[in-house]
Sequence to fold (212 residues):
Amino acid sequence: MADIKIDVKGETCPVPLVEVRKALRKASPGDIVEVTGTHSASKKEIPMAVEALGLELIDIIEEEGVWKIKIRR
Amino acid sequence: MMEKATLIVHSGDMDKIYSALIIANGALSMGMEASLYFTFWGLQRLQKGGLEKGSLSKMNMMGLGKKMIQGRMEKANVVSLEKLMTDFKELGGKIIACEMTMEIMGVKKEDLRQDLIDDYGAVGTYINEARDSKITLFI
Fold:
């Protein structure tokens, strides 16, 4: 199972959401997608997308304005 | 059946094309299907080299206002319409061009970016898609 990392630090709406979706489409079931970003609305909205897609949200952490979200495809 | 968002893109104004593409990309990202129906002034943005050519819907000031807003968008790291369009297509978004507008405006298929367009249609095509869409907007 692969670990896919995407970096959207500094990117704004709708890029973080779109890049997560693109990565999840390419991932295989069971793969972990880890996204790192700074856009604060996306920290709330990526979990909403994960729920809508019926996938598993593993972890959200934030340190000094940089968040990291882990999703299992 | 997957949930769907169906948007009519009637305006060709830059800011409104941004709204349409951002909403459509958001819908795709959150697991919906999305279709964009380009009609009237919106269709001009599907002409070759036309995507970024729209003026601002307010305070365009002969293009000065647009320049200013573009500068601010760049500072805020907002992506180009071209990039939003590429993502929209990559995520499976559909583009429909209005045939009546093409007739009225004298636009031929060769004038349009056929690589982006999935279908050419009229009102029936829109209604058929919109009737089972969760979201439908006129922009």
Observations:
- The interface with chain A takes residues 22, 25-26, 28-31, 76-79, 84, 87, 90-91 of chain B (CB under 8 Å).
- Chain B has one domain: 4-54+81-138.
- The radius of gyration of chain B is 15 Å.
- The longest helix of chain B spans residues 14-29.
